[in-house]
């Protein structure tokens, strides 16, 4: 690169940064220089490949290669700036070990094969298994990284073609409790608010959410809000001190699992001190309770059905008496006066309160309950549906919402919040798919954990995993890794862009196209749907997962379900029939081509920022104010649930005295299969460490950097101890990130799950820590 | 050599000290400080590897809240 081009590019880089923060007057870019810096690049828009925030990026392509990335200045989510993961977009597609050809296991070894050989083998295994053992012996396991089209095609093939509800997604491991929380409280999935709440509120309660590392762009919006408004307060309720705690106004540490009790105590104080909004409650709320002592899903084929019962406000108030600040202080470790102070802050009439959470609530054996309890506080105070005042679950994958939740790629779900158990829903789905309604089975089969238990038992013989890494990410991993390789007719297919701990378990590996190597749509956590076009070719013979699924369909005789000339556009137009007039309205394809994403419902070309509220939501008529219009059985009201504190299934004891919490770090994303490809990343945060409290370490004779063995009843792993890293463990707790494919920490985790949502708890199990010799 | 433009957001009152520290970083040029204390800088390094480690080091400076990426050009890298 010559000096003048370098200078142009540097000026361009500075100009983009100035423009993103409104410093246009300081822009050093002279007219003409911008054009020179562009130097033959063509730019296309896409959402970022990584998390669920849904940041917009502009992708610069020259000679068929991605050569530059910009934060998209027109993208409302991130306004021209990306987090550090933006750097990884430069290399995600170009790792040295990219899979470029199908592989078939022969004599124990994965051997290159043609697409025809691979697909012939896969189709024959499906046919054989369906013939011998029935349609419920085959399964597909997808992901919140599926494009909307890929998820839709998989659901249509399995539910509408093969005739099995054996479709699940890794989103069961991260979002399922948010879904059941929304469904039980509001009878409609996904939030009423949006990211604008981050700019418009003044009081933010974060519960077990390390936003600074896991949602940096959204956290930046909070910090920018606070820079311009000194009244903004950020409260970090957590079990671990993080970068988020450092930037928050208050860090409130609590003992694992006691979030259930704390939220009840906050509700108790609000009512005791008369801070609740009586008029709002009278008009918009009903009270219910469900079953208690509901179990933990630890046994195979665990079943649970709640029995909701209406109760009065008085009965609800009575149920909270077990949660006085004093009692909950003893349980949670949070001082009683802090609980009272926080309840008053939540209820302060002059404050706009937003609650944010992510895996701390959702990966919880009482995940549905704790979501319900967060809504309770907003419903009691009437702080909901208005700008700056909403509860919101943040997401970890780029299309956990758009694909898995909205398309409904879970065993029990169909598009637009419909479920297979409901005959009218099956009827409507069958009509749009052009099939006999009897084809879609009325009974759900397995949640994600149960699906891999079924593979271990041999009830499922053939399983296809796409865009995910279950043999690194499942809890109690040892059982499921061994189960997959038991033979006896089991056949595992894995589609991915790189070799992973799951491809090594596979009988056939298929090379996948990724991100801007294909046309796609993702939906983010604020109901915003993004579209992008293909910009570069995938390497070698890699093909997108939509093609792969439709190719299997063709070979199984279900080709007529996919009669598309331009699959993406036609699938979209077919799919959006489900949400029309249901409060889940989506716009025609071209509206997404032209925009930087639109938040549904999109009615008459207009997106919706706030749901259930007059003036924003077209489904709420003038004079209605707030209306939870999806909850018809409860007369369009939301539900406040009486949900008790119940302990975690496994708690520290004398043999296993520590709580183990797992999670993410800034530099790596999930199981690290994309971020781990980038060598500099591995250097920045090369391998997982065990964060341990310095006092606990001292008692065990452990010093910084010492190798320690962390063991649970299920497995054990050796890691370096970190006493004073970026995250700081509280007394009695250890934390380990799960990205490291050489340190499979999930082997230690318990495969207990929330009986209502089926989502496992990766945040709590009992371990011991010893110096490794 | 890849080039990137970044915005550094600091805790209130920390911008001056952060700019001071950034001056000692090879490969980082501070292009300006906005009235609200946000810093615009351009990074230049031998590889994306080196760029990301610069960003990681910037994150570790006391008072730095976030480092965000506006523009990244890596057109002359072997890929």
From TrEMBL, chain A:
<feature type="binding site">
    <location>
        <position position="55"/>
    </location>
    <ligand>
        <name>[4Fe-4S] cluster</name>
    </ligand>
</feature>
<feature type="domain" description="4Fe-4S Mo/W bis-MGD-type">
    <location>
        <begin position="41"/>
        <end position="97"/>
    </location>
</feature>
<feature type="binding site">
    <location>
        <begin position="257"/>
        <end position="259"/>
    </location>
    <ligand>
        <name>Mo-bis(molybdopterin guanine dinucleotide)</name>
    </ligand>
</feature>
<keyword id="KW-0813">Transport</keyword>
<feature type="binding site">
    <location>
        <position position="170"/>
    </location>
    <ligand>
        <name>Mo-bis(molybdopterin guanine dinucleotide)</name>
    </ligand>
</feature>
<dbReference type="GO" id="GO:0043546">
    <property type="term" value="F:molybdopterin cofactor binding"/>
</dbReference>
<dbReference type="GO" id="GO:0030313">
    <property type="term" value="C:cell envelope"/>
</dbReference>
<feature type="binding site">
    <location>
        <position position="469"/>
    </location>
    <ligand>
        <name>Mo-bis(molybdopterin guanine dinucleotide)</name>
    </ligand>
</feature>
<dbReference type="GO" id="GO:0042128">
    <property type="term" value="P:nitrate assimilation"/>
</dbReference>
<dbReference type="Pfam" id="PF01568">
    <property type="entry name" value="Molydop_binding"/>
</dbReference>
<feature type="binding site">
    <location>
        <position position="518"/>
    </location>
    <ligand>
        <name>Mo-bis(molybdopterin guanine dinucleotide)</name>
    </ligand>
</feature>
<feature type="binding site">
    <location>
        <position position="48"/>
    </location>
    <ligand>
        <name>[4Fe-4S] cluster</name>
    </ligand>
</feature>
<feature type="binding site">
    <location>
        <position position="83"/>
    </location>
    <ligand>
        <name>[4Fe-4S] cluster</name>
    </ligand>
</feature>
<keyword id="KW-0560">Oxidoreductase</keyword>
<feature type="binding site">
    <location>
        <position position="363"/>
    </location>
    <ligand>
        <name>Mo-bis(molybdopterin guanine dinucleotide)</name>
    </ligand>
</feature>
<dbReference type="InterPro" id="IPR006657">
    <property type="entry name" value="MoPterin_dinucl-bd_dom"/>
</dbReference>
<dbReference type="Pfam" id="PF10518">
    <property type="entry name" value="TAT_signal"/>
</dbReference>
<dbReference type="Pfam" id="PF04879">
    <property type="entry name" value="Molybdop_Fe4S4"/>
</dbReference>
<keyword id="KW-0732">Signal</keyword>
<keyword id="KW-0411">Iron-sulfur</keyword>
<keyword id="KW-0004">4Fe-4S</keyword>
<dbReference type="InterPro" id="IPR006655">
    <property type="entry name" value="Mopterin_OxRdtase_prok_CS"/>
</dbReference>
Automatic annotation (TrEMBL), chain B:
<dbReference type="GO" id="GO:0051224">
    <property type="term" value="P:negative regulation of protein transport"/>
</dbReference>
<dbReference type="InterPro" id="IPR005623">
    <property type="entry name" value="Chaperone_NapD_NO3_reduct"/>
</dbReference>
<dbReference type="GO" id="GO:0005048">
    <property type="term" value="F:signal sequence binding"/>
</dbReference>
<keyword id="KW-0143">Chaperone</keyword>
<protein>
    <recommendedName>
        <fullName>Chaperone NapD</fullName>
    </recommendedName>
</protein>
<dbReference type="Pfam" id="PF03927">
    <property type="entry name" value="NapD"/>
</dbReference>
<comment type="similarity">
    <text>Belongs to the NapD family.</text>
</comment>
<keyword id="KW-0963">Cytoplasm</keyword>
<dbReference type="GO" id="GO:0005737">
    <property type="term" value="C:cytoplasm"/>
</dbReference>
<comment type="subunit">
    <text>Interacts with the cytoplasmic NapA precursor.</text>
</comment>
<comment type="function">
    <text>Chaperone for NapA, the catalytic subunit of the periplasmic nitrate reductase. It binds directly and specifically to the twin-arginine signal peptide of NapA, preventing premature interaction with the Tat translocase and premature export.</text>
</comment>
């Amino acid at each position: 690169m010559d000096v003048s081009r370098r200078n142009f590019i540097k000026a361009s880089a500075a100009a983009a940064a100035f423009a993103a923060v409104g410093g246009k007057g300081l822009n050093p870019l002279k007219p003409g220089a911008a054009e020179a810096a562009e130097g033959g690049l063509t730019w296309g828009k896409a959402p970022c490949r990584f998390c669920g925030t849904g940041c917009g990026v502009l992708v610069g392509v020259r000679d068929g290669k991605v050569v530059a990335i910009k934060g998209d200045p027109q993208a409302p989510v991130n306004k021209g700036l990306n987090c550090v993961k933006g750097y990884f977009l430069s290399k995600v597609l170009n790792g040295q070990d990219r899979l470029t050809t199908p592989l078939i296991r022969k004599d124990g070894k994965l051997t290159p094969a043609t697409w025809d050989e691979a697909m012939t083998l896969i189709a024959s295994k499906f046919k054989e298994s369906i013939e011998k053992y029935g349609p419920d012996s085959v399964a597909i396991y997808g992901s919140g990284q599926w494009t909307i089209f890929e998820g839709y095609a998989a659901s249509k093939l399995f539910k509408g073609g093969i005739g099995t509800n054996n479709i699940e997604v890794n989103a069961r491991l991260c979002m399922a409790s948010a879904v059941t929380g929304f469904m039980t409280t509001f009878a409609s999935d996904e939030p009423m608010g949006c990211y604008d709440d981050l700019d418009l509120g003044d009081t933010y309660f974060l519960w077990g959410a390390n936003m600074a590392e896991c949602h940096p762009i959204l956290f930046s919006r909070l910090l920018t809000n606070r820079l311009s408004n000194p009244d903004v307060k950020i409260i970090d309720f957590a079990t671990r001190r993080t970068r988020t705690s450092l930037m928050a106004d208050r860090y409130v540490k609590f003992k694992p699992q006691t979030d259930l009790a704390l939220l009840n105590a906050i509700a108790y104080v609000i009512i005791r001190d008369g801070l609740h909004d009586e008029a709002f409650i009278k008009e918009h709320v009903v009270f219910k309770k469900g079953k208690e002592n509901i179990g933990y899903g630890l046994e195979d084929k665990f079943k649970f059905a709640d029995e909701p019962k209406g109760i009065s406000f008085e009965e609800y108030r009575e149920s909270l008496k077990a949660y006085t600040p004093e009692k909950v202080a003893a349980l949670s470790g949070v001082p009683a006066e802090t609980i009272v102070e926080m309840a008053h802050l939540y209820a302060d009439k002059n404050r706009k309160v937003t609650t944010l959470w992510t895996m701390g609530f959702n990966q919880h054996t009482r995940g549905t309950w704790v979501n319900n309890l967060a809504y309770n506080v907003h419903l009691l105070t009437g702080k909901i549906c208005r700008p700056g005042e909403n509860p919101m679950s943040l997401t970890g994958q780029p299309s956990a919402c758009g694909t898995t939740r909205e398309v409904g790629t879970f065993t029990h779900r169909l598009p637009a919040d419909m479920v297979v158990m409901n005959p009218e829903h099956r009827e409507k789905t069958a009509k749009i798919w052009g099939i006999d309604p009897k084809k879609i089975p009325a009974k759900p089969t397995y949640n994600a954990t149960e699906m891999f238990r079924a593979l271990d038992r041999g009830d499922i013989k053939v399983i296809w995993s796409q865009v995910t890494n279950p043999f690194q990410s499942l809890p109690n991993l040892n059982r499921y890794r061994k189960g997959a390789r038991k033979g006896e007719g089991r056949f595992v297919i894995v589609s991915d862009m790189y070799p992973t701990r799951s491809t090594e378990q596979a009988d056939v590996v298929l090379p996948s196209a990724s991100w801007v190597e294909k046309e796609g749509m993702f939906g983010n956590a604020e109901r915003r749907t993004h579209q992008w076009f293909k910009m570069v070719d995938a390497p070698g013979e890699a093909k997108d997962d939509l093609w792969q699924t439709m190719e299997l369909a063709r070979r199984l005789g279900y080709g007529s379900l996919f009669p598309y000339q331009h699959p993406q556009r036609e699938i979209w137009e077919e799919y959006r029939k489900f949400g029309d007039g249901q409060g889940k309205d989506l716009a025609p394809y071209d509206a997404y081509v032209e925009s930087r994403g639109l938040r549904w419902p999109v009615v008459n070309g207009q997106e919706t920022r706030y749901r259930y509220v007059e003036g924003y939501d077209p489904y709420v008529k003038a004079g209605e104010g707030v209306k939870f219009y999806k909850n018809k059985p409860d007369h369009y009201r939301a539900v406040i649930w009486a949900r008790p504190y119940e302990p975690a299934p496994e708690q520290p004891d004398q043999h296993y005295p520590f709580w183990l919490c797992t999670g993410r770090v800034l530099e790596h994303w999930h199981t690290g299969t994309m971020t781990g490809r980038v060598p500099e990343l591995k250097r920045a945060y090369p391998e997982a460490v065990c964060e341990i409290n310095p006092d606990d370490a001292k008692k065990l004779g452990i010093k910084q950097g010492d190798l320690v063995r962390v063991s649970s009843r299920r497995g054990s792993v050796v890691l370096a101890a970190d006493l004073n890293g970026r995250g700081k463990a509280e007394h009695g707790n250890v934390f380990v990130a799960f990205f490291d494919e050489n340190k499979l920490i999930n082997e230690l985790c318990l495969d207990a799950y929330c009986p209502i949502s089926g989502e496992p708890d990766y945040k709590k199990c009992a371990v011991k820590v010893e110096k490794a010799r | 050599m890849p080039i990137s433009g970044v915005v550094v957001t600091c805790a209130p009152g920390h911008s001056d000290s952060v700019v001071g520290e950034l001056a000692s970083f090879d490969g980082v040029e501070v292009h300006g400080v906005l009235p609200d204390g946000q810093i615009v800088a351009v990074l230049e390094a031998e590889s994306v590897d080196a760029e990301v480690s610069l960003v990681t080091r910037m994150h570790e400076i006391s008072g730095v809240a976030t480092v965000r990426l506006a523009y990244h050009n890596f057109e002359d890298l072997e890929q």
